[in-house]
UniProtKB/TrEMBL annotation:
Reaction(s) the record says it catalyses: L-seryl-[protein] + ATP = O-phospho-L-seryl-[protein] + ADP + H(+); L-threonyl-[protein] + ATP = O-phospho-L-threonyl-[protein] + ADP + H(+)
UniProt-listed SUPFAM superfamilies: alpha-D-mannose-specific plant lectins (SSF51110), Protein kinase-like (PK-like) (SSF56112)
Protein name, entry field: Receptor-like serine/threonine-protein kinase
Residue ranges of every copy of the Protein kinase domain listed in the record: 516-789
Length: 832
């Protein structure tokens, strides 16, 4: 199937021809093939291609019925209204002045647009049914058996089903969407609901409904938050004039009736009212060349900062300027702008609130800040109870407490969504009430680590500016390619396709075929599951399906770029990837001997690896890590070195896998960014106290070296308390000078090479130094292993292995215990 934009182009050529042939009709009524204003039973219309009218730059219209009346607008038509790029269509009513101007004023089921070949049928039994191209039911008037005789589009833009006596059985005016036209009434129990945007007609966040004293406008939340109330006393009859534009309203029997009560000139009568996707209620009027905003009804009483999305979620609005909530008393910053350049998009929590971590929740009081709504949830209470109630309920995201200035008891309002906040300066300072506002925030015990780490990242980045410059040029090239292809909706996913030497892009369908529908699972890790697959050329691959990354498309591609550009014989090669909808998969070369843990922890004499194999594996890992740390374009910290992440090929060459994934996971907004990561037992002590450097990988490497030499896991719960920790035994034996005792007893060959093994253990010991500055770099380790450098003397053997698995920050002890068996996905990456 060709992409939409190609369809659009070929179609536009056709349309161009069509317009010339029909000698540029100025209204729909002038079309060469005029439409009726009524239809009999048993009529069907298909949303065929090629019978379109180019109505504007972004919409195409296929008329079905045209309202009777003047030949030159204004008028109404009903038909299929399609988005220009997506070719998603609605069965709709449009108000128009000429062919270029139709505006959507009603539609059938706008949450479910249809495609080409969708059909609208007025059945024999009088039901009007819309079905998509594949026959899926989309909408109907539910009027079967009500003696319907036909369908008319009236002069006022009302689509009606009439019975034999010309009585109305169904009318579109009773089912308003986001707009009202003249003569259409909004009655009690009906709502206007905004659309997501001008080009996405799905139900948006705002709604407007009639009350018994006027109308209320809400933004969707649980419960909906009121942002505008209009009392009928203001509305009984009202006229707005704006230059030559006049708008009239009448309030009538608890109905909001958008009706002119004085006759207005026909040329000025093309008007409609719309609840916009920004929450404004506006009236539009045709003026000479286009639709113009005649009046903004909500603006009459609201300031720019009163709109709930003026500064997005969590944004603070002050005279139209947007900022994010500032630091708390102790200097912690909890919010940052979603987009630095577009501050009106709102702010996001640096540590998103997670219901599982309620012990880390606290309330951040914002000074001199108010909120547009106050629905009383608890009356005559005090501020502490109000705050505690919010802290106890995970769906509460903020608490407002309002009390008379001279009184401590007052009302409490709990918010489940925090929309735009307002700086108090924009409010009346003589308010009788004083209101306190508390935002729920999440503290993470590792926040300090992260902040310092960020500083460190800057230093490292600074020192590799040269490398960065190269990267920037590359990024520039990508951006160029990206813009060149931005016509395509999928462009952002595509820009890797054309970089030579980059991993292949697979479709999800491809990968389904390659893995035989993900039938053979090789394993499961913290990042997701790994499946076996075979490429069409017979090459075996491992397909890793990443979890929880659905939203992060751009960063995913950036990381694929990084991972894909890293080539080293001791690093598992990335062959391809898939980024499609919410699927994120990586395709690696298959390492047929699996992961190292299977070869060192099995306790089986027959399968035990000999000394040379183990020595080679240790050297391979060291080379791979050394390359990641020192020789890549960007410095890469692995952060999760353990035997499960070391893979062996058919010749027992070891390759490091899963590098770069920790950073990938970090990008995921839904993860707790500041969570300490790694696998208990392999975590360097500085994780808890200070700056993270590449030496955390050196530490984990040290643990792996001992595990390889001793043939047992660092943490083995089947042992006695005294022997549970390999590092504990290692320390004891080193002090007793009896390291040979702990060499893997499964292998005679290892026993035979006792002296070499003990030397290698000292390399491990060096890597395990508590003071990370004393650990060697990976390149030094490689030199030691190659015999070019000696091991440092007087090593410190008082390893700070934790007697119990460390409490993983932000996960609680229960999770940490479970994690000793199951690896924990990375959520915090090191600077690159
Ligand atoms: C549709 O008409 C508008 C207004 O004349 C024009 O700018 C636009 O290019 C036309 N589009 C197509 C596809 O013909
Ligand atoms: C509708 O039905 C009437 C009577 O059966 C017929 O005269 C008329 O031509 C039909 N109109 C259309 C548009 O089919
Ligand atoms: C619509 O139907 C026609 C005829 O059945 C078919 O040729 C065409 O491919 C269909 N178009 C789409 C977009 O499904
Ligand atoms: C509907 O259209 C038919 C055919 O033009 C017409 O006879 C009838 O009066 C119309 N009814 C209404 C209510 O407009
Ligand atoms: C329209 O918006 C809704 C809600 O935000 C979203 O789920 C949907 O994918 C959007 N549709 C299109 C065609 O962009
Ligand atoms: C208002 O109407 C007068 C006379 O009809 C015309 O001269 C003037 O240009 C109009 N003003 C605007 C702003 O359209
Ligand atoms: C700031 O204070 C909050 C509670 O008032 C506390 O939970 C958090 O850990 C503190 N942050 C720092 C960086 O001290
Ligand atoms: C809040 O407003 C008061 C009075 O205008 C002012 O003195 C105080 O400094 C403000 N507080 C903050 C945090 O801006
Ligand atoms: C928590 O708050 C939500 C929304 O404010 C409310 O619907 C729910 O009943 C509350 N739950 C409890 C246990 O109070
Ligand atoms: C608070 O002030 C209001 C008006 O200024 C007054 O009517 C009320 O009695 C006061 N309440 C207290 C507890 O002082």
């Amino acid at each position: 199937m060709s992409p939409y934009w190609m369809d659009a182009r070929s179609n536009s050529a056709f349309l161009f021809a069509f317009l010339i042939i029909s000698s540029f009709p100025s209204t729909f009524a002038d079309l060469s093939d005029p439409c009726p204003n009524f239809a009999n039973l048993s009529t069907a219309w298909t949303n065929t291609r090629g019978e379109w009218v180019n109505s504007s730059d972004w919409a195409l219209v296929k008329p079905i019925l045209l309202s009777p009346g003047e030949t030159s607008g204004p008028g109404f038509l009903c038909g299929f209204h399609c988005h220009y790029e997506s070719f998603l269509c609605l069965f709709a009513i449009l108000i128009f002045q000429d062919v270029y101007s139709p505006q959507l004023v009603w539609s059938a089921n706008r949450n479910r647009p249809v495609r080409f070949n969708a059909t609208l049928r007025l059945t024999e039994d009088g039901n009007l049914i819309l079905a998509d191209a594949d026959g899926t039911f989309v909408w109907s008037t539910n009027t079967a058996g009500k003696s319907v005789s036909g369908l008319n589009l009236t002069e006022t833009g009302n689509l009606v089903l009439l019975d034999r006596n010309n009585e109305m059985v169904w009318q579109s005016f009773d089912h308003p969407t986001d707009s009202l036209v003249l003569q259409q009434k909004l009655v009690r129990g009906k709502k206007l609901i905004s659309s997501v945007s001008a080009s996405n007609w799905t139900h948006g966040l705002f709604s407007l409904s009639i009350t018994n004293y006027g109308f209320d406008a809400y933004i969707q939340s649980n419960p909906p938050q009121l942002y505008y109330e209009w009392e009928y006393s203001f509305l009984t009859s009202i006229q707005y004039t704006n230059g030559n534009l006049s708008v009239y309203y009448r309030w009538e029997d608890e109905e909001f009736n958008f009706t002119p009560f004085a006759p207005i000139p026909r040329t000025l009568s093309a008007q409609y009212m719309r609840l916009g996707s920004d929450g404004h209620l506006r009236v539009f009027q045709w003026q000479e060349t286009g639709w113009q905003e005649a009046v903004d009804l909500t603006d009459e009483f609201l300031t720019e900062c009163d709109y709930p999305l003026a500064c997005g979620k969590y944004g603070i609005c002050s005279a139209g300027q947007c900022t994010c909530p500032g630091a708390s008393d102790n200097g912690t910053i909890y919010f940052r702008p979603i987009n630095e350049r577009q501050t009106n998009l709102g702010c996001s929590a640096i540590t998103p609130i997670s219901c599982q971590l309620s012990q880390y929740h606290s309330l951040l009081e914002l000074q001199n800040t108010s909120y547009s709504t106050f629905q009383v949830d608890m009356q005559s209470t005090d501020v502490e109870i109000c705050k505690q109630t919010c802290l106890k309920n995970c769906s509460c995201k903020a608490a407002l407490f309002r009390h008379p200035s001279n009184h401590s008891s007052g009302d409490c309002c709990l918010l489940s969504d925090v929309f735009t906040l307002q700086n108090m300066e924009t409010l009346n300072p003589t308010d009788y009430f004083s209101t306190s506002l508390f935002l729920k925030v999440e503290n993470s015990p590792t926040e300090n680590v992260v902040e310092k780490k960020a500083g460190n990242a800057r230093i490292i980045l600074g020192s590799s500016l040269g490398a960065l410059f190269g990267v920037l040029i590359l990024i520039g090239a990508f951006i160029f390619l990206f813009w060149k292809r931005r016509d395509s909706k999928e462009a952002e996913e595509d820009h890797l396709d054309c970089i030579p030497g980059m991993p292949t892009r697979f479709s999800f369908e491809d990968l389904k075929a390659i893995t035989e529908n993900f039938s053979c699972k090789l394993g499961e890790g913290g990042f997701g599951s790994v499946f076996q697959g075979t490429l069409s050329n017979g090459i075996k691959v491992a397909v890793k399906q990443l979890e929880g990354l659905g939203q992060v498309k751009k960063s995913f591609l950036a990381e694929v770029e990084t991972i894909g550009s890293v080539h080293h014989v001791n690093l598992v090669r990335l062959i391809g990837f898939c980024a499609e909808k919410s699927h994120r998969l990586l395709v690696y070369e298959c390492m047929c001997n699996g992961s190292l843990d299977k070869w060192i922890f099995h306790g089986n004499r027959d399968l035990a690896l000999g000394w040379q194999s183990r020595r080679k594996i240790i050297l391979d890992i060291a080379k791979g890590l050394s390359y990641l740390h020192e020789d890549c374009r960007q410095k890469i910290f692995h952060l999760d070195i353990k035997p499960q992440n070391i893979l062996l090929d058919e010749d027992f060459n070891a390759k490091v896998s899963d590098f770069g994934l920790s950073k990938l996971i970090d990008k995921d907004q839904s993860q707790v960014v500041t969570r300490m990561r790694g696998t208990p037992g392999y975590l360097a002590p500085e994780w808890l106290t200070s700056i993270i450097t590449e030496k955390v990988d050196v530490y984990s490497f040290g643990v792996v070296v001992l595990e390889i030499l001793c043939g047992r896991k660092n943490l083995d719960r089947s042992q006695t308390e005294e022997d549970m920790h390999l590092l504990g035994i290692f320390k004891r034996k080193a002090e007793e000078n009896r390291l040979a005792d702990i060499i893997d007893k499964c292998s005679e060959d290892m026993q035979l090479h006792g002296a070499d093994v003990v030397e290698m253990m000292k390399v491990g010991g060096w890597c395990l130094q508590s003071d990370f500055a004393r650990r060697p770099s990976m390149s030094v380790v490689v030199k030691v292993l190659e015999g070019l450098v000696d091991i440092e003397d007087n090593l410190e053997y008082s390893f700070s292995y934790s007697p119990r698995p460390p409490k993983i920050a932000g996960m609680g002890n229960k999770a940490a215990d479970a994690a000793t068996a199951e690896p924990i996905p990375s959520a915090l990456s090191g600077p690159r």
